[in-house]
Amino acid sequence: MTPPLGIQLYTLRNQLAENFEPVIRRVAEIGYAGVEFGGVYGESPAAAKKLCDELGLEIFSTHTPTPMMENLTLAVDTANVLGVKRVVCAWIPPERFATIDSIKAACEELNTANQVFRGNDMELLYHNHWAEGYVVDGKYVYQHMIDFLDPTVNLEYDVYWAKTSGVDPAAALRELGKRAPLLHIKDGPATMDGDMTAVGDGTVDIAAIAQASKDTAEWWIVELARCAIDMMEAVAKSYTYITQQGFAHGR
């Protein structure tokens, strides 16, 4: 059974800020099974939840406000209104991964936040960028993080940023196993500042990602930070490619 295909709405942040409802309706029309929020772009969480329910879009997770530790109450309240049980810390500054001690301190903050979320019947995950693929004391930062994080804190693993930092994302997914239930799927040149592409048009070996995560991925999530073509076109092309290849399924 393939995982369902969702989209991180940060991908369409500019469009959502201008005209929220038509953009969400277009996401549903394309066929996406669910959405991950990263803010509600001027809407109330209750209105966003009502619209997604109407359209049959599952809200499977949401990113916490940044910085997370200063916004835990808001994160819990928003997740409750959206009806989600998974919340994702989307960003820790790269300088916090410079040494073993700083990595451990960052993970201790995540563990502290995790207790708050678990107390509200929620699960905390962490989303990597490029710095988690750097090597510190002979190991990748993400490997140190797995050592320091509570076993209930899993990863939302971004395969594009992993590749950008020099990590083989498929190998990392085989290593992480069930610690990476959510996957962010991007494509493009895998450079720090290059424009991304629709999934399937870039350098990421998407088939290898599918094979490596076939027994562990619970959601595939398209997320593009910027793109060489119209973003909605890229969102539709990504859906078509992923579903036609049988890597994940829509509604």
Describe the protein's topology.
Layout: E1 5-8, H1 13-18, H2 20-30, E2 34-37, H3 45-55, E3 58-63, H4 72-82, E4 86-89, H5 100-119, E5 123-127, E6 135-136, E7 139-140, H6 141-148, E8 154-158, H7 159-164, H8 169-176, E9 182-185, H9 206-212, E10 219-222, H10 231-244
Parallel strand pairs: 1-2, 1-10, 2-3, 3-4, 4-5, 5-8, 8-9, 9-10
Antiparallel strand pairs: 6-7
Q: What's the level 1 CATH class?
A: Alpha Beta
Oligomeric form: single chain
Query: What is the architecture at the second tier of CATH?
Result: Alpha-Beta Barrel
> Mean pLDDT, rounded to whole units?
98
Shape type: globular
- Protein structure class: alpha/beta
List keywords for this structure.
10 strands; 41% helix; TIM Barrel; 10 helices; globular; alpha/beta; 251 residues; two-stranded antiparallel sheet
What's the gist of this structure?
This protein is of the alpha/beta class. It has helices spanning 13-18, 20-30, 45-55, 72-82, 100-119, 141-148, 159-164, 169-176, 206-212, 231-244, and strands spanning 5-8, 34-37, 58-63, 86-89, 123-127, 135-136, 139-140, 154-158, 182-185, 219-222.
